[in-house]
Amino acid sequence: MQLSGKRILSTRPQDAHCSWASCLQARGAQVDCIPMLEITRLEGDAAEQSIKPYILDLDRYDAVIFVSRNAVACGMGWVDRYWPQLPAGQRYYAIGSATAEALQAWDIEARSADAMNSEALLALEDFHCPDGQRILVMRGRGGRPTLQEVLEARGAQVDLCELYQRTRPASAPAALADYPHNPDAISVHSGETLSNLGSTLAALPQGRRDQLMATPLLVPGSRVAGLARAAGFSRVIEANNASAGSMLEALERWAAGGE
Questions:
Q1: Are 205 and 175 contained in the same domain?
Q2: Do 64 and 157 fall within a single domain?
Q3: Same domain for 53 and 159?
């Protein structure tokens, strides 16, 4: 098997780790997991005040963009609460095929681009000239500003409905400090995960930190690859995007000596 004998350290959130681990194990890898990202729904009175107005105004938007599966899981719960039947005439978009598939479970057909990033979605013809359109972006707190900035520069009115927050798990520093293995590669699936990994590594003794930062790092795309190199990771394995297929393809290419 392509990854036989390789030990991979996964940094995915716990609920997303299992499917990724299964893909790796099916190819012979040993897999450890130390999550560097935790997804928490925004709840309570503050969330009600910030999220509910966008949901009640759903029929006033020309297009709704979901940036991730987490945005679907969190956002559609709100939508289902106030809209037993979706308003007619809207267009739905998803960043990445996995997000589009998550919307299909709600009987929503969403357009998506091949790549799993904002730039690919913005390249769709639908968004070349959205002048005067109202667009709602369903996302997590503090996400990348690219969608809003570009769409507003093209004349759209954009609202951001922030549904969840991403944090570093409190257990991450101790878990990494106690990690007894020297993995053959470390996988990260986003720039924020990379940032959390970097800050966690910074707290380790220098020898151990240098060792892990010299370990091949699997990342999703050129943007995160650039961030990884700037952060001091010396061996970066660049996948085309964060999908399991693309990440596995890049990892197997590396394992075969094509780094």
A1: yes
A2: yes
A3: yes
Task: Report residue 151's pLDDT band, with 50, 70 and 90 as the boundaries.
Answer: very high
Contact (CB, 8 A) for 188 and 197: yes
For helices 69-82 and 97-104, angle between their N-to-C axes, nearest 10 degrees: 30
H-helix or E-strand spanning residue 166: strand 164-167
Residue 18 in tokens: 């299992």
Local structure of residue 257 (DSSP, 8 states) = I
Distances (CA, A) of 2 to 202, 213, 219: 32, 24, 19
Burial class (CB in 10 A: 0-12, 13-18, 19+), 193: buried
Is 156 exposed, middle or buried (CB count within 10 Å of its CB: 0-12, 13-18, 19+)? buried
The amino acid occupying position 93 is: Y
Q: What percent of the chain has pLDDT over 90?
A: 83
Residue 73's CB: how many other CB atoms inside 10 A?
Answer: 17
| Residue 183: predicted pLDDT | 97
Residues of the domain holding 139: 41-166
Task: Note the pLDDT of residue 258.
Answer: 55
Q: How many CB atoms are located within 10 Å of the residue 45 CB?
A: 7
| Final residue in a domain of this structure, among 145, 166, 187 | 166
Output the pTM of the full model. Answer: 0.81
- How many C-beta atoms lie closer than 10 Å to residue 245's C-beta? 12
Q: How many domains does the chain have?
A: 2
End-to-end Cα spacing for the chain? 18
